[in-house]
Specification:
The complex is a heterodimer of chains A (364) and B (393).
Chain A (H helix, E strand, L loop, with lengths): L1 H12 L2 H4 L24 E6 L8 H10 L30 E6 L5 E2 L5 E7 L8 H5 L5 E3 L6 E3 L9 H5 L6 E2 L8 E2 L5 H4 L10 H8 L3 H6 L5 H5 L5 E5 H13 L5 E4 L2 E2 L7 E4 L18 E4 L17 H13 L3 H29 L3
Chain B lengths: L5 E2 L8 H23 L15 H13 L2 H11 L9 H22 L20 H27 L2 H6 L2 H10 L1 H21 L17 H28 L5 H29 L10 H21 L6 H25 L13 H24 L3 E2 L3 H4 L4
Helix pairs in contact in B: 1-13, 2-4, 2-12, 2-13, 3-4, 3-8, 3-9, 4-5, 4-13, 5-7, 5-8, 8-9, 9-10, 9-12, 10-11, 11-12
The chains are: A alpha/beta (364), B mainly alpha (393).
């Protein structure tokens, strides 16, 4: 159904000029979406395997430390343990990354939809074609052209919150309780990654040569996003998106219950792996196609909708919105032509008015 | 009919209604102060599920539609050359001046990082793909155009010897001569940003019910803005007519009514046609929140059509009721598509807090106060003197 609609949209693009005049039913869409964007050449991201997550929240604490965010307590939990526990319920202006739990019935078994429970990690998915960048009026949201990390620049940001409104995953959050609030979102610890030139260059060998060492040595001392760095089971795994995708496909292809060496920290790094049985996966790698693709992959035991990961089309809504804008405002031709017509008419009508006034004044 | 003359209404400025409105403005000022001292969360119920609240939706999205009187009348009078409506132009323009200027004020209250607002004008921060960027620039430009279009009303009020001394009479002649450029801009800019207010919603995707989310949003928003513009002109003229006993324009409005009704018919045809084509019309009748909102909107859109196309449109009372209905329909359409039909999921809900609403109400009250002040002291309303309209004064 999606395909046929897209084909129709493409066909309708040629008929933009006549669309307005054509019967309403004939012209279902007045324009075509913008071309989809491609994954950046050295895209980095994360693979989160819900079946491997034990809900320890070490990643939440590490994220707060790495990004200088305070402990958070919702009002009704503030009295717990004298307020010492971080009890963030969801990502917020103070929490960039959080583990949430799905609960059903007796919660007897992990990663089961009925009478079971499951964990899910919430943070920015670093979309290939992000809505937040498309809506931002002051270019405060940026996507790194090499690594694809979506970053936010508070010095540009005017706080209009359309990134919050438009994000299909509800990720950017504004600090409403601050007089000078900021937009908060996961930036894949890009300040830590910046210490390793391998994560920002296309050419490993050249980078290694410049640093006077080998690429392997650089890898070994590389810093990675805090959540993946501390994850004890490898549920949060950092790496190149293409390799993470292959890893996810590999796990999906295996039989549930089969023992598997789960890599930890950095995919392709030198940490000892964690041996564990393969989970009962849903046959879908979330994040591969959703919203035009993201740089985070999810493998889950329960359907992703149950975990707050919405069902999304495989195109970005940004492509729809920008397709519209580019059709209406291409080269500013339409507005300028319209202005020309309006000036002409307004002037002609004003002149007629003056002439009429002169005629009336003459006899008296 | 000779050239239009306008005259100030005169009378006391500080009246009882003026003072009551003033109280609401002061209450709003208190909460605005709190918003800047303690942050938005102190006065508002906005959340990260509903980051756009009443300040944007009521004051900007709906407020600017109420300010479209100037746009709608300029289109009719100067572009389609219907000069008969000329007496309605200046009051409509004044409504636009305040509708838009105070929408700008509301945006400054709503911006989370308002001290960076000037970044919108910095070319190195420009983001032409952003619909909001286009809306922001367009609205800023239009506020400027509105004040320039209105400027002759100030100049007419300034004593002539004063005008001569400062060369203001030359400015007056200049503005009058090139007014057609301003008029053209005053039609182009609202066409652009009112349609874009609809395009903004395309990014919501699944969060907005298919009953509202369509690629025809820009056109639907543009039509509704024009219809609401005519509605507000009818409403405002009737109120001023009743309150200040100015001559009735009911005959003129009976003709304007047909224009407004035509727009509403076009709006409904486009909306229902599109829904039928996309196969989502069934959602309207499932009896849930979204479906019922849609049906209420439709009834509100249909009611003024029937009144305005019937013989009742000659009656001032029915005109007034139809205008109220039309504005309610357009406002609800905008409120639904920006807020009430938006479901961000994950259990988020939103209802505005009292202080949040009081700020919105205060901004509207300030708008009405300034409108009253201006029509009493400046030549805005059509002169009711015998020589201008041939009516007894």
């Amino acid at each position: 159904m999606d395909m046929s609609r897209r084909q129709f949209l493409r066909g309708a693009a040629g008929a933009v000029a006549t669309a307005a005049a054509a019967p309403v039913a004939e012209a279902a869409a007045p324009f075509a979406p913008r071309e989809p964007k491609q994954l950046p050449p050295k895209a980095i991201g994360m693979l989160y395997d819900s079946t491997q997550c034990i809900g320890c929240k070490a990643c939440v604490a590490a994220c707060k430390e790495a990004n200088g965010k305070p402990v958070e307590q919702p009002q009704h939990l503030a009295q717990w343990n004298e307020g010492a526990w971080d009890t963030a319920e969801d990502i917020s202006g103070k929490t960039l990354n959080v583990i949430r739990v799905y609960q059903n019935g007796a919660m007897a078994e992990k990663d089961r939809e009925v009478n079971g429970y499951a964990f899910v990690k919430r943070h920015c998915l670093h979309c290939v074609d992000p809505s937040c960048i498309s809506v931002c009026p002051v270019s405060a949201m940026q996507k790194n052209p090499v690594t694809g990390i979506v970053t936010h620049n508070p010095d540009a940001c005017i706080g209009c919150r359309y990134c919050v409104y438009g994000c299909p995953f509800n990720v950017p959050h504004y600090q409403f309780d601050e007089p000078f609030g900021r937009i908060a979102k996961c930036q894949l610890c890009s300040h830590l990654l910046a210490e390793n030139p391998l994560f920002s260059s296309r050419d490993n060998a050249a980078v290694a040569a410049q640093a006077g060492t080998s690429a392997t040595a650089l890898w070994k001392k590389s810093r990675i996003p805090a959540c993946c760095d501390v994850c004890p089971t490898g549920a949060s795994l950092f790496g190149w998106v293409e390799e993470l995708q292959a890893e996810a496909e590999r796990r999906l292809a295996l039989k549930p219950g089969e023992m598997y060496e789960f890599p930890r920290g950095l995919l392709g790094g030198d940490r000892p792996a964690q041996a564990a049985p393969i989970g009962h996966y849903q046959p879908h790698i979330y994040g591969e196609q959703e919203s035009g693709g993201t740089q985070v992959r999810y493998l889950t035991g329960v359907p992703h909708e149950k975990l707050g990961l919405p069902k999304l089309p495989d195109h970005s809504f940004a492509a729809v919105s920008e397709g519209m804008q580019h059709t209406l405002y291409k080269g500013l031709i339409a507005p300028v032509a319209l202005l020309g017509g309006l000036v002409f008419l307004a002037r002609r009508n004003a002149r007629e008015d003056d002439e009429r006034k002169n005629d009336e004044e003459r006899p008296s | 009919m000779t050239a239009i003359t306008h005259r100030p209404l005169g009378g006391h400025i500080v009246t009882k209604p003026f003072l009551i409105l003033g109280v609401f403005v002061l209450i709003a000022a208190y909460f605005i102060l709190r918003r800047f001292l303690f942050g938005m969360g102190d006065v508002s119920n906005m959340s990260n599920g509903y980051p756009i609240g009443t300040w944007v939706v009521l004051d900007v999205v709906i407020g600017t539609a109420f300010g479209c009187g100037g746009f709608a009348m300029a289109l009719l009078i100067y572009i389609f050359n219907r000069k008969a409506y000329h007496p309605l132009m200046r009051p409509a323009l004044l409504g636009g001046v305040f509708g838009y200027t105070l929408a700008g004020l509301a945006v400054m209250i709503d911006l989370g990082r308002y001290w960076n607002a000037f970044n919108l004008l910095m070319p190195w921060y420009a983001q032409p793909n952003s619909v909001i960027f286009e809306v922001a620039l367009c609205v800023m430009a239009y506020i400027t155009v509105l004040w320039l279009e209105f400027w002759p009303a100030f100049l007419e009020r300034i004593p002539s010897e004063f005008k001569q001394r400062f060369g203001l009479d030359k400015l007056y002649v200049f503005l009058k001569r090139y007014m057609y450029v301003l008029v053209a801009l005053g039609v182009l800019l609202p066409t652009m940003h009112q349609s874009s207010l609809g395009s903004v919603l395309l990014i919501l995707g699944y969060k907005l019910s298919p009953l509202w989310n369509t690629t025809w949003l820009p056109l639907l928003y543009l039509i509704s803005a024009l219809a609401m513009g005519y509605g507000v002109v009818m409403l405002e003229a009737t109120l001023v007519n009743r309150a200040f006993k100015t001559p009735s324009e009911a005959a003129l409005f009976a003709r304007l009514a047909r224009v407004a009704a035509g727009l509403l018919v076009g709006f409904l045809l486009l909306r229902w046609g599109d829904l039928t084509y996309r196969g989502h019309l069934g959602l309207a009748f499932v009896g849930d929140w979204d479906g019922n909102l849609f049906l209420i909107e439709t009834v509100l859109f249909l009611a003024p059509i029937f009144v305005l196309l019937s013989r009742r449109r000659a009656s001032q009372r029915w005109q007034f009721l139809a205008a109220v209905c039309l504005l309610a329909a357009g406002s609800l359409y905008r409120l639904d598509s920006y807020l009430m039909a938006v479901q961000p999921g994950n259990g988020w809900t939103y209802f505005p807090s009292a202080p949040e609403l009081l700020i919105t109400i205060g901004v509207v009250c300030l708008e009405i106060m300034l409108y009253l002040l201006f029509i009493k002291t400046l030549p805005v309303l059509p002169g009711s003197t015998a020589e201008s309209h041939g009516r007894p004064s």
